[in-house]
Structures are given as structure tokens and as C-alpha cells.
Amino acid sequence: MQVLEDAPLAPLTTLRLGGPARRLVTAGTDAEVIAAVRAADDAAEPLLVLGGGSNLVIGDAGFDGTVLRIATTGFELDGTTLELAAGEIWADAVTRTVDEGLAGIEFLAGIPGSAGATPVQNVGAYGQEVSSSITEVVAYDRSAGETVVLSNAECDFSYRHSRFKADPERYVVLRVRFALEDNGGRSTPVRYAETARYLGVEPGERVEVAAAREAVLLLRSGKGMVLDPADHDTWSAGSFFTNPILTPDQYAAFLTRLDGRTAPAYPGPDGCTKTSAAWLIDQAGFGKGYGTGPATLSTKHTLALTNRGNATTADLVALAREIRAGVRAAFGVELVNEPVTVGVDL
């Protein structure tokens, strides 16, 4: 276990923003993770759990407590059953499953961050979510002071949400277990229209898992969603806002604000309708590359707020607030940020 005082946090996040941690603890085993959590809890000290830093906005003042960086490793594949340590690099794990010809997470290629973060956010992209393949999550329960195993149903997954996100102070994910599919090297059904068009198939068809992964990587790269230190469009937290899910009444009110435009609309849960945050942002006047300061929208995708190299978190937050207010004024829809915020209020 490595312990550093007054440690910079910005280099540990994909936004490269945020002040220092009073103490940074890097844990390489589950036992070290649990020991660090218990030590912080016993001392009643604030604790921030850090994985890949890809879905995190840290305030400029940093974190006045212990930041626990989970650096555990472990990739165990038994047939179609996969167990990942929380610290495993997610993109690398996807590549390894595709190399084995297994399906289930192939459309989640190129997503930055660690495996332990995927159930927290119910990570999803291109028509696939981890909730469709996760069977169990092994976590340390800070309230009970013990390690627990939560089934898929107990994780309470929904769109970009889970039990872990709803109660962020309670659980620290240690391991994630998946049930993958052996379809003879074929993918799960292609569900996302853009991916289907790119692959030249109809939605619902299957393709080679390697072809699915490559298509997703190319599509993500075109939107600046694959990390590249030389490309400031990738200095982001990915999609900054979730796609709004509107109740029937909210959707009816939304339709009255369109002025003849046709907004994307997809069936949501309980009779709700999901629309596109990217479309709303663009139509509200915030196009690709919007902004003149050190924090701007990506030149490749309106959902990514980026650090152009010398931004502060305050710069990024000001841009996020401007965009959120503009969408609210134009369409009466309140955008919700997807990244976790620490020491900063949007």
C-alpha cells in the first residue's frame, strides 16, 4: 500500500482537473482496500474512492481527506463466467473477452475507467449496458463492516444508476462478475441504429464480436470518446449529461416547445420517453466547440465538456451551468450531469 500526502489528483482524472488530496492511498489488493476504508471510517475521516477517474469532477480545492485509489488486478475467465477485480482497466478487459470470441460487453469497448466503476454507473453505450451481463458484485459494506455479494437484482440497476450510486457512502466495489455469451464468435444483437448502419446490418442482427468492437472504437474515436493525451477533445468525462427521461406530461410540454422541429424520441420505462441530450444542447445554440475559454464543448461531440489544457474546475462548471440553463430556457428540460462531483456544486 502506497501513501502520499498532499497528492495531486488532476493527473488521475481524464479531465485533468481538481486540487490535491490531503492523503492519497493506493491499494493493490482487496485486503488493502478494506483496511484503508476501515482506517478512514474508524477515524471519521472523509473518504473518496477513485478508480480510473473517467467519470469524476473534483473541485479546485481538492479533497480534504483520504482518497483511496483502487489498483487491484485480476481477470479470471472460466468458460463464459468472468470475474474482474475493481482496479482492472475496463477497455483492456473488453478486448480480452473479444479476443476469446465471447459476447456481452463488446459494444462497451473503449470506455475509459476501471471495472469497479461499471456497476456504479450501470455503464452503457451503443445499445448495451453492463446490467445485462453482470451477475454479482462483491463489495465491502461500510455500514455492516463486512464483505457482501449482491445479486444483479439487488444492485437495483436502471438507466445510468444503481444501488451503489444511490448510496455512495455505503459500498466499495471489490469485484464484478459477469455471464458472457458464446455465440460462436458472434456478438449480441446489434441494437443501436448508428452501429447497425456502420456495420451494414439491420438492428437485431449479429456480427463478429471483433467487428463490433472495432466499429465501436472507430465511432467513439470520431466523437473524441477514446482517450488520447494529444487530443484535448478527449480531456473530458465522456458524456457530461444523461439523456433526459420525460414523463408523459413532461413530454407533452416538451413537444409544445419544438417549433416544428423533430426531436429524437425513444420508449422509456413506465410510459416515459427518452430524448437526446446532445440534440437538446445543439438545438439550444451550443454547437460543437462552443466556448471561448479554457473549457469548451468538444469539437467532435456536444455532450463532452473538455479541458483545453489550462482550464480549472470552476471554468468547466461555469460552462456546464450555462448549457444547462440554456436547454432549460429553450425546452423546459432539466439536464442532469452524469459524472460524480466532489467538492463542487453544479
TrEMBL record:
Keyword list, A-Z: Cell cycle, Cell division, Cell shape, Cell wall biogenesis/degradation, Cytoplasm, FAD, Flavoprotein, NADP, Oxidoreductase, Peptidoglycan synthesis
PROSITE patterns: FAD_PCMH
Localization (cell): Cytoplasm
UniProt KW Transcription keyword: no
Domain (FAD-binding PCMH-type): residue spans on this chain: 17-183
Gene3D superfamilies in the record: 3.30.465.10, UDP-N-acetylenolpyruvoylglucosamine reductase, C-terminal domain (3.90.78.10), Uridine Diphospho-n-acetylenolpyruvylglucosamine Reductase, domain 2 (3.30.43.10)
Stored Pfam families: FAD_binding_4, MurB_C
SUPFAM superfamilies cross-referenced by the UniProt entry: FAD-binding/transporter-associated domain-like, Uridine diphospho-N-Acetylenolpyruvylglucosamine reductase, MurB, C-terminal domain
Main location class: cytoplasm
PANTHER family membership: UDP-N-ACETYLENOLPYRUVOYLGLUCOSAMINE REDUCTASE (PTHR21071:SF4)
Family, as annotated: Belongs to the MurB family.
Name of the protein described by the UniProt record: UDP-N-acetylenolpyruvoylglucosamine reductase
Biological source species: Kitasatospora kazusensis
